[in-house]
Specification:
Number of helices: 7
Helix content: 55-70%
Structural class: alpha/beta
Radius of gyration: 15 Å
Shape: globular
Strand content: 5-15%
Mean pLDDT: 92
Order of helices and strands: EHEHHEHEHHEH
Amino acid sequence: MIFLIGHAACGKTTLGRALHERTGVRFVDLDQAVERSAGMTVPEIFATQGETAFRALEAEALEHVCALYAGHDAVVACGGGTPCRPGAMDLMLRSGTVIRLSADRDITLRRLREAEGQRPRLAGLSDAALIAALDADARDREPSYSRATATFDSSRLDTEEQVNQTVTLFINEFMQ
């Protein structure tokens, strides 16, 4: 199992889907797993139950996915905060390979602006406030993220050609 971790808009879902399309490997988006289990979208969970409830659902989904796909080929796109829950990185490292995706900051900011409203913790922030939130997340999450097995540059995922090139690089580095 390969777990993709990283900050919001670094390309975890885009890369995971593209890997599935190219290789047929099972793809799990942890946010979608949470949504199915809760019967509502991530923004709805945040709005009605709060981040703490979302993180608990996310931890349950991670445990379920690790048990369900143990010993199988799968790519799991984790939420940005997933690895920071107590025990989460240990579980992922025991269950497979953890790849930290890292994208250029300007690209990340553009992607976040293009997906406005889809990320409850960052919705409605000015550029300055968004940068401050990303910097705070980077500081808070670094102890967990630094435990990843490897880091992979996910800056080039914006066109079909870039996605194809990035998928080829990822496959060559981690799936052969």
